[in-house]
Structures are given as C-alpha cells and as structure tokens.
Write a structure and sequence with these properties.
The chain has about 270 residues and is α/β, with parallel strands linked by helices. The protein is built from 11 helices and 10 strands. It has an 8-stranded parallel sheet. Strands 8-9 form a two-stranded antiparallel sheet. The chain starts with a helix and ends with a helix.
Length: about 270
C-alpha cells in the first residue's frame, strides 16, 4: 500500500487559478492535466506550461476527438517538444463528435507514430468495470490494438477491488503487459466538489457520481469521502502480485490540498 501511494500522482482539471493551488505538492511531482471537451487541447498545454515553470513533471491529456487534424497534431507535438514534455496520455475524449479526423485514441496514436516525436511515454485508457456503450470484447480488442503504440495504461475509476484485480490479472494473461496506473478517487470534500463541478460545467466531476450510486450515497452521508477501504482492498486482492499495478492515478477533482493531506498521512501511518 505504501509503495503504491508513494508512486501515485494527481490529475487536475484546467480552471482559472488552479496553478496557484498546488503548493501542497512536492516540487518535481508528476501531475496530469485533463483535456476538457469544452476547452480543448490548447488550454491543457497552456496550464501544463505554467506547471512546468513551477517545477512539476507534467503529463498533458491529448484527447483524440479534440485534435482537428494532422496539422493541429504537428503543432501540438512541436509545443510539447518545446516544453520538453516526455509523457502524454491519449484518451478518446468526451466530445459526442470529433472535431476532425480522429475518431478515437487509436486513430491519434497511429498519426502520432507517423509524424514522429520525442516523447518517451504514451499512456492509454482502459475500463476495468466496462463501458456503457462498448462491449467487453471490443474494449479488449482496442487495448490489444493500442498496446503496440503505448507505454502504460491508466484505468477509469473502479470502486470494486475484486473486479479491478480480476481485470488486471486477465489482461496480463492475454498478453497486455503494460504497467497499469489504477484510477483512484481522491479525498473528496462534498461542498468543494459541488462548487468545482459548477465551475467546470458539472460533467467532468459529477458524471461518475451518477453512475456510482454507492459512492454518491457515501458522499452524501458524510462531508468527505476518502478511498482508505478501496486502497486496502486492492492491496489485499489475492492475485495482486500477478498484476502490473504500477501505482495510482488520483482523480482529485481539483481537491488537491485535502487529497494530498490524505495521501501523505496514510503513507506516514503505513511507515510505522
């Protein structure tokens, strides 16, 4: 548990002034920056630049559906190179329709491979609990296709340790041996979560609550949700040593201070 939490890194959502709220994180920490369907890739890279100047190792999300075409992709790659960014995450994106020719992450990954780049690590998304619009077979096929063009996997949030563990073992058995960063909800303060949700257009923060009624109920019962039980259950999964769990990608919903406080205090307790 301690090692997995020490290796964890946080995901933040671009909102005005968010770069001023990362004081609780250690300099040189890894930070992922999401790509909002309403604000696009440029906003992500602009925030990434600000965070790099503050001393962070930044992993921008380059959502396929937000890239308008090959020229736009080439411009993005040049900006990443100028900023000396070595790692990106490539999801499909939440737009109902793509802005250009890239319909999914695989399309963008292929184009990225052809255009050339200086990136060292490219991440892809995975869905241990499935996807409401895509079959399990299709999801697994997509992972097999993307794995040759990627270096690591980041999962969507999964609140069931057994489902997650079974999936981690299964992809290993099927030859998908990439390191996996498990999507973990951070320590979420109810009032601030709702406030952040309104500022970013609700969807990015609240979509998961509508699908996860149990978590929503826990959040409504207390002022703060934290993932203590989930992390413990994942660490105790019977075959966790037969997986490629690398650490946690923490969805903090911009609750940076409270989530980092939870993480560091939990690590401290586990160190005794």
């Amino acid at each position: 548990m301690r090692e997995d939490l020490e290796n964890a890194y946080m995901e933040i959502i671009p909102v005005p002034g968010i770069e001023e709220r990362l004081e609780s994180l250690q300099k040189n920490s890894h930070v992922a920056v999401t790509c909002s369907p309403t604000k696009g890739v440029d906003e992500t890279i602009e925030l990434s630049e600000k965070l790099i100047k503050q001393g962070f190792q930044v992993i921008p999300h380059i959502a396929a559906k937000c890239v308008s075409g090959k020229k736009h992709l080439e411009t993005i790659v040049k900006r990443l190179d100028t900023l000396n960014i070595k790692s990106i995450f490539v999801p499909g994106g939440d737009l109902p329709q793509p802005t250009g020719e890239f319909n999914n992450a695989y399309d963008l990954l292929k184009a990225l491979h052809k255009c050339g780049h200086n990136l060292e690590n490219i991440g892809i998304a995975a869905h241990p609990e499935g996807h409401p619009d895509v079959s399990e077979e299709t999801l697994m096929e997509a992972l097999h296709m993307k794995k040759e063009l990627a270096d690591y996997i980041v999962t969507q949030m999964c609140f069931d340790a057994d489902i997650l563990g079974d999936w981690l073992v299964r992809i290993n058995q099927q030859g998908i041996g990439l390191p996996v960063w498990v999507g973990l909800p951070g320590a979420i303060e109810r009032g601030r979560l709702l406030k952040t949700s309104l500022r970013i257009g609700v969807g990015d923060s609240m979509r998961f609550l509508r699908k996860k009624s149990q978590v929503a109920a826990e959040l409504m019962r207390s002022s703060i949700y934290n993932p203590d039980k989930l992390v413990k259950s994942i660490s105790q999964y019977k075959d966790i040593d037969n997986s490629n769990l690398a650490g946690y990608h923490i969805f903090c919903f911009n609750q940076i201070e409270i989530t980092e406080k939870w993480r560091t205090e939990t690590i401290s307790k586990l160190s005794y």
